[in-house]
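Here is one chain, start to finish.
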Amino acid sequence: MKQIIFKDLELHETHAGFLTDERNVICGCCGGLFEAEEENESWKVVKIYNSWINLENEICGDDIDDIDDIEEEF
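Its structure:
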């Protein structure tokens, strides 16, 4: 399991969450499940953190200012 930033393509919102080994995403805001089969249709990974980080300090969810820059990095 990895911590990630992902984009909800239907709502055009960016959230923090957890990427499971099965490639499902658990939303850090609502606890909702984004299923692997829907990747790149209703959601997509923007950034994967390779080490465990403090969610409160590091993942900003909807407050990301430069989302286009981060997407290019990934």
